[in-house]
Design a protein that fits this description.
2 domains, Endonuclease Iii, domain 2, disordered C terminus, binds iron/sulfur cluster, 253 residues, mainly alpha, disordered N terminus, 55% helix, Endonuclease III, domain 1
């Protein structure tokens, strides 16, 4: 993998071996600057799904696939009133469950995932959500993204970076990864950012994706990262500042 950010300019007269060793690394101050700018723009960025328990977050995150968090939050109020625990979900009438979650889309498969996951929770975990990645990804409809959301937000366990569509898109535009699959993008992000920032990073990038770096129309001139972002794959409106990229050690490919 070749990362976009390179620091050859910083290395100056370093010998070839040192340059090779440092290649593909973003200088720590650039990572720090990126986080500082995002924190300033989105103070208190956090999970925007409504939940009170790990089970509720698990269900809400399954429902959030291909759906906005706003829509999911409209659905989960009545849903969590109707089904209080994993046993309730496991024994629910499938048609009734589907009707309650219908507006989130893909409701047949989501209802199936929720019910089958809850059956396993009842059979293997006493109705509780397991607090480890390996167990979570064994549940139907639960991948690394959902598992990371649940671990990071419901349990405070940092196992990885949540890579959803926003984080995937932004990682490429900002030059943090050239990869296309969430799994490979996550590997790049966990290499670049300190573990203590992983949960916060995804919240910040998701906020940035919702507010400025939208899929079809990124609003670069008003983006908090305008000065340092190389805007990879973005039309040239709101042109970047090469000088600042050099100053920060962030250079276009
Ligand atoms: S500067 Fe543009 S491309 Fe870069 S993160 Fe902001 S909106 Fe996205």
């Amino acid at each position: 993998m070749r990362l976009i950010f390179e620091i050859e300019k910083e290395m100056g007269s370093e010998n070839e071996k040192s340059e090779e060793k440092m290649k593909n690394k973003i200088p720590p101050f650039a990572i720090s600057r990126l986080l500082t700018l995002l924190r300033k723009a989105y103070p208190g960025a956090a999970c925007s799904l409504d939940y009170e328990t790990p089970l509720q977050l698990l269900v809400a995150t399954i429902l959030s696939a291909q759906c906005t968090d706003v829509r999911v939050n409209m659905v989960v109020g009545p849903l969590f009133q109707r089904y209080k625990n994993a046993k309730d979900f496991a024994e629910a009438d499938r048609i009734e469950l589907e009707m309650l979650i219908q507006s989130t889309g893909f409701y047949h498969s989501k209802a199936k995932s929720i019910q089958e996951s809850c059956k396993i929770l009842c059979e293997k975990y006493g109705g509780n959500v397991p607090a480890d990645l390996d167990s979570l990804v064994q549940l139907p409809g639960v991948g690394r993204k959902t598992a990371n959301v649940v671990l990071g937000n419901a349990f405070g366990i940092v196992a990885g970076v949540v890579v959803d569509t926003h984080v995937s898109r932004l990682a490429r535009r900002i030059g943090l990864s050239t990869e296309k699959t969430p799994e490979k993008i996550e590997k790049d992000l966990v290499r670049l950012f300190p573990r203590k920032n992983w949960v916060e990073l995804s919240h910040l990038l998701i906020q940035l994706g919702r507010n400025s770096c939208k899929s079809q129309k990124p609003d670069c001139p008003n983006c908090p990262l305008w000065e340092l972002c190389p805007k990879i794959g973005v039309p040239t409106t709101g042109a970047s500042s090469p000088k600042l990229h050099v100053d920060l050690g962030l250079a276009n490919n």
